[in-house]
Amino acid sequence: MTRHAPFLAQSRFWDWGYARDILPALLRGVVVTFEATALGSVLAFGLGLVLALLLRAPFWPVRALVRGLIEFVRSTPLLVQVLLIFFVLPDYGITLSPLTAGVIALGTHYGTYTADVYRAGIDAVPRGQWEAATALSLPRRRVWTGVILPQAVPRVLPALGNYVISMFKDTPVLLAISVGELVRAAQEAGAQTFRYVEPFTMAGLLFLLLSYPSSILVRRLERRVGG
Amino acid sequence: MSVAEGPIAPATPVRSTQPMIVFDKVVKRFGDNVVLRELDFSVAPGEHVTLIGPSGSGKTTILRLLMTLERCDGGTIRVGEDYLTHMERGGKLVPADERHLRKVRRRIGMVFQQFNLFPNMTVLGNLTEAPVRVLGLSREAAGARARDLLELVGLTGKADARPAQLSGGQQQRVAIARALAMRPDVLLLDEVTSALDPELVAGVLNLLKDIATSTDITMVCVTHEMGFAREVSDRVLMFDRGQVVEQAPPEKLFTEPDQQRTRDFLRAVLDRA
Rounded CA gap, B66 and A135, in Å? Predict the structure, then answer.
């Protein structure tokens, strides 16, 4: 400890001892936050791709329906979606654990954004690639998996990465359904002592500590794939 | 190894007097713009035909219709004994469905102006993709054929390169090999040297001349290379405004064309060169 520690330890604004005591609880919250983000991202990546492909369906009512769904999900708050999935679905016989409900909400919400990311990537593949694939009689499925997506997806990885970071910062919404993520952990720590400065400040700093390097990583990725 | 019995001999040599390609009153419009107006023409098996004419005269559209990259708005196109645009069902002609198109399309290969190689695959991958996925060849068989073709186009040793690592001329040779890997009966060449640096043009044209003289593949080319048209063509078709203005063997068409329109076009093109 530095020589300032005794002074700071007794400060009314910041108690280092208390901060150290609650750190393990907050780190457990970080783990849950990571879980929610990772699982939510997997869902958002998968769902977004499916939606992007449906947006190119030959039958126009399918396209209209999917477009409508995307706009609907985007135009309503994530918090409402989280509450709906957790509290209303049980009325229809679907009872989910808080984390599962949260992951579904995050994944669905962000899936509507990643859908357009994929769409842009697919549109950026030159027409000539489709034509060459047609000229070689490649089956449609193989055109997607062998030619179009391998070119479209690497180009949109940075954009997908940015949505992962956004989702990461949206995970505190899940405290509404008592998922024990980082901010919930901070809130619980504070509730025991009625000291909130340390837990919320530390929660904020932990978010910064994790998302800032991630965004640097994404920027580096952007440069590698050429925007 | 002679090319004729080598990797690019067509899978189904057609030795009949029946034409390989027949356009019957084909109409193609883009909006109000009529690109082809009731176009009739046919190509015999093994014949090398070159289409010349001012830009916008519908030459490339003919190749794109044959490759089923465009649908025609009227008339019929036949390739061999099959309709390309239609299929027979219950004794009547109905518009072709995707399955029928896929079947007829297999007889045709196309080389594009912009190469259109798959950048995410190696050269070998580009050459084996369709033979494996469409013709059902084993990877080994497709690979062996691909290596033969690379030898033919003078790119032995480039099998594992990515298209981006090759020059334009090399990419176009790979594209030619890729089209030939499917053993098409008909090879469509759409301004294949237009995107190349001038010093690379001759190599690609010489390769195509070799293929033209040593195989019985049917060729339909759109080109601005009049020297090439003269050397490889059995017949040259002069197009203007979606119709054939004049057709003749190259030695006649390039020296004593009947039509004023042809004379004007040739003068303009040859002056530029």
Answer: 10
pLDDT tens column, B20-69: 999 999 999 998 888 998 999 899 999 999 999 988 788 999 999 999 99
Nearest CA to CA, how far is B180 from chain A (Å)? 10
ipTM: 0.89
Cβ of residue B132 closer than 8 Å to a chain A Cβ: no
Mutate to test the interface with B, among A130, A137, A138 (most CBs of B within 10 A): A137
Which chain B residues are Cβ-neighbours of A144 within 8 angstroms?
A: none
Of A129, A135, A151, the CB nearest to B67: A135
- DSSP annotation of B215 reads S
Q: Under a CB-based contact definition with an 8 Å cutoff, are residues A149 and B145 in contact?
A: no
**B242 Rama sector, left if φ>0, alpha if ψ -120 to 50, beta otherwise:** left
| Tokens coding A103 | 């992951």
Verdict on whether the full-model pTM lies above 0.95: no
| Contact between A137 and B102 using a beta-carbon 8 Å cutoff | yes
How many other CB atoms sit within 10 Å of the CB of residue B15? 9
Contacts of B117 (CB under 8 A, 6+ apart): A132, B123, B126, B163, B171, B174, B175, B178
Question: Which chain B residues are within 8 Å of A151, Cβ to Cβ?
Answer: 119-120
Show the tokens assigned to A56.
Answer: 């190119």
